[in-house]
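Dear support,

I submitted the protein below through the web form. The confirmation email said the job was done, but the results page showed an empty box. After a refresh the structure appeared. I'm attaching both so you can tell me whether what I see now is the final result or a partial one.
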Amino acid sequence: QLQPVESGGGLVQPGGSLRLSCAAPGFTAKRCAIEWYRQAAGKPREWVASISNGGRSTYGEDSFKARFTISKDETKDTVYLQMNNLQPEDTAMYSCKTGGICFGYWGQGTQVTVSS
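What the results page shows now:
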């Protein structure tokens, strides 16, 4: 069973950066895509970015594409979400999920708080 585990969240000042990690042992061998989502308090969950088995990255909206970069290290079965120029509105629980041809397993999430 693929079980993603996120890490790397925390408190950062506006304009700062964080790199989130999503470790999902086996996702490379199973040719899964990995998707990042976020959910702020009181708001619906929104799709942030995805990376396909072939390494193609897609982003949920232009502001994500401008500031965030999704990448993966297949040797570590880990996907990263590099987030730059973070703003208070980026405060949310960030979660990753296996996707593509794989059944969707969710991680527990990692909290990102952007505040001065």
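Response: this is the final, complete result; the empty box was a page-load delay. The chain is about 5% helix and 45% strand.
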